[in-house]
Every structure is written in structure tokens, then in C-alpha cells.
Amino acid sequence: MRMFGTNGVRGIANDSLSCELALRMGKSIGTVLGPTIALAYDTRTSSRMIRDAVRSGLVSVGTDVIDLGMVPTPALQHYVKMRPGITGGVMITASHNPPEYNGIKCISGDGTECSHEEEQRIEDAYDGDIRCVGWESIGTVRHVLDAAEEYVDSIVSKVDRESIRAARLTVCVDCANGASVETAPMLMSRLGVRAITINGNPQGEFPGHPSEPTEENLEDLKRLVVDTGADLGIAHDGDADRCVFVTSDGRFVSGDLSLALLARNELSRNGGGRVMVTVATSKVVEDTVESNGGETVYTAVGSPIVAREMISGGGVFGGEENGGLIFADHQYCRDGGMGAARMLESIARNGPLSEQVDSLPRYRTIKKAVRCPDCLKTEVIETVCRMHEDGRIDRRDGLRIDFDDGWVLIRPSGTEPKFRIYSESKDDAVAEARSESFVREIEDIIGERARSLPDDLP
Q: Are 238 and 203 within 8 A, CB to CB?
């Protein structure tokens, strides 16, 4: 049974993600990743309940558990990475999903998110005959209280703390009432930054705003930055593996622009190198990387894919356009705390974020969605591909077509019956016209094929 999505196993707590499922997942994970697993959770209302079920499953098959408590996902990953005796990790989180959701994310022994092969082995174990050990061999549980502090100390050791402190920066931090409520203020304090924090309570129903750090969810942060005269706004998602930024004049900085700016910094730090990003990433990153002596490598969408490409291809930096930033000199995973620290370092060294953003090439990116039955997705992709054989085709994730004046990406959702359609160009009119054209084209193909499908098909 296929259970893992792009980022772990997710569902509505006490519904599709039941304690019974979590218990069996714990047994499966222990069977595959044991004998020693580090375990952590985010602030969601159901997280402790799911944690308890997973933990029971782990120890029932003889796996020793190191319980880190409530910490960000990258803090768990850092803890696992730094200890060869720990053979894996489990994070209880649904990241940016609504509060009724929760999830189980699995971590390999090197601190990276589990590969598809490891996830398949866990699913096979789930479907098989799992044998619990005798009472005398059940696993132990040990609680560790300093994983968050260790993670923050590691971040601080990787940046120019004195330059940041000397800049006397004021920062507004939106913790989304999530897993960064302790680590984000701690990090700001260690870096000598004055921090004004909002949504800083561990309230799993996310009363401040939805945990996805999109522009529309960060209106309070944007106003706070301007009203307080802060130098920067930082926002995290629910499990704090991502971060996005707001300039001192209250402008939301898209994930693509953050990728470009931090790629430029990492290339300068390393004297060049490779930067890995997904096919959904704006050309502003490639332009910036090439103008700073680097090479851009494209991957399929998904932070584990980007991270593993960085490992195999020697990337110095990488990430996704949703605020997921991966720094090779710290750890091969999305790291919201490290992203925040490196942006502070960039401002201390290079001046206001608004000026840095204005120095980048300008592109217009339009994102739309078209509903499509899952059974038609492959046929739609193949049909569109045949209709545009004259373009430069990239099939590594959906269908990306590059033109001389822009590109289009048609990517099937892995969790919903729809396509996501991206259109980008330096010319606003070209981006908009091409977006509308491909949306109509895909809708026409779906409409023609759907007439032969049953009426009740989702």
C-alpha cells in the first residue's frame, strides 16, 4: 500500500491518520530503520498523541528511542546526523498543512529525509507480518532536553556572528505558533539581534494564521516590520524547516528571490560551485548563479531529491521556491534556522535586503491550477508534449518547455486530482498570454478525454 507522499505520511488526525496506523507505522519504521531512532514532534494538538503511538510501535519491536521532545525538523535531523549510533529519526509533523492534519516523516541515519527506496521498505514491512519482541527485549526510551540548543549552537558556529552583532539589527520573527517558538528567539539572542516575536506560543491550532508562510498569511508580519522600523522580517512554517523574508519596507520576498540572493552568497563563500534547484524554480536563480561563476543543476520537485543531488553532485547550495533552503556546509536538508542566520549575515555584510532584491533580474511568474482526474494525467502530459515538440523539453518532473522568452511547467500534483501550471517570462504580457494558452489547451484535452469516463470519477 502506497502511504508516503512528497513529505512523509500525512492525514487528518484520528481519521485517516489514526493511532492504530501510527502504532503500526512505528513498528514498521523500527523494523527497517532500527535499532536506535530519534523521535521529535511539532506543536500540533495531535502531535503528542501520534508521537506516543509511534513510540510504542518502535519499542515493541525492540527499537531504542531517543525522545527529543518538541523541536524543529532540522534540529532532529542535525541530532541524527551528528551521532553515528543513531540509525534513523521520526518527526511527527504535517509542516504547513491545516491544524487537523498531522504526519510521520522518516529520517535516514545520515540526517537526510528517507529515500523512496527506504520508504518502500517501510511500506512493505507495514503490509507484512510484523513480529513484536518478547517482554524482556522491548526497546528503551531516553529523553534528551538539549537538542534545540545544540542545533542553534551549530548554526551560530557557521556564520559571522561578530558582523551580525555589530550591525545592531532588529528583526521581527513570525514563528507561526509552530516548532520554532523556542529556537528562533534563542538564535536571535545568540547572534546579538533584537527580536520582536509574534505567533510565538506552541498552539497547535495555529490561531495567528495558517502555518503556510505565504504572502497572504503574513500581513501582520509585514505591518509589524514597518511599524517597528525593523531591518528584516522572518517567517517559519509549522515545523520550521522553511523560512521566508520581508524587507524593511514591508515587501514579501518570494522564495525564488531568496534562493537567488543566498545562492550568490554561497558562491562567494565557496569561490563558485554548483547550485541545485527544482524545475519549478524561476530563471532569476540561474541568471544569478551564472553571473557569479556558478552552475545551476535542475532536479525534480522535492527537497529530498534536491538534497541527494547535492550530495552526489557536489552542490554547495540548493533548495525549493517555497522557502526550503539547503546549505551543504551545515546539513543536507531544508533548514529554516540556517536560512535565517545566513540572511542576517548577508544583510550585515551587503546592506538592506530591499536593495539586494532590487539588484536581481526581474521576472514575472504566474502559477495556476487545473483539475484533472488522476487517470488522465499521463495522457494529458503526453498529448501536450506532442503538441510542443518544437520547444526545449524537460520531462524529469511533469513537462517543462523552455522558450527563448520564458518557460512553462505542467506538473501533476502527487496528492490532488489537478495540474499545477507555471508560466514565466521577463515580459509580463508573454507570461500571462502563455499561461492562459496552456490552461485552455489542457482544459480542452481533459474535456475531450473526460467524456468517456464515469460521471462519479474524482
A: no
> Side chain identity at 137, as an amino acid letter?
S
Rounded CA gap, 130 and 9, in Å?
19
Report field, pTM of the whole predicted structure over 0.85: yes
CATH of domain 9-145: 3.40.120.10
Domain chopping of the chain, boundaries: 9-145, 150-251, 255-358, 364-450
How far apart are the C-alpha atoms of 401 and 408, rounded to whole Å?
5
Q: Is 28 assigned a catalytic role?
A: no
Contact indicator for 39, 90 with CB cutoff of 8 Å: yes
* Architecture of the domain made up of 255-358: 3-Layer(aba) Sandwich (3.40)
Q: Which of 28, 56, 60, 95 is catalytic?
A: 95
Instruction: Tell me how far apart the alpha carbons of residues 58 and 45 are, in angstroms, rounded to a whole number.
Output: 22
The dotted CATH code for 364-450 is 3.30.310.50
**C-alpha dist (Å) from residue 180 to 214, 372, 387, 407:** 17, 37, 47, 36
pLDDT digit string, tens, across residues 339-351: 999 999 999 999 9
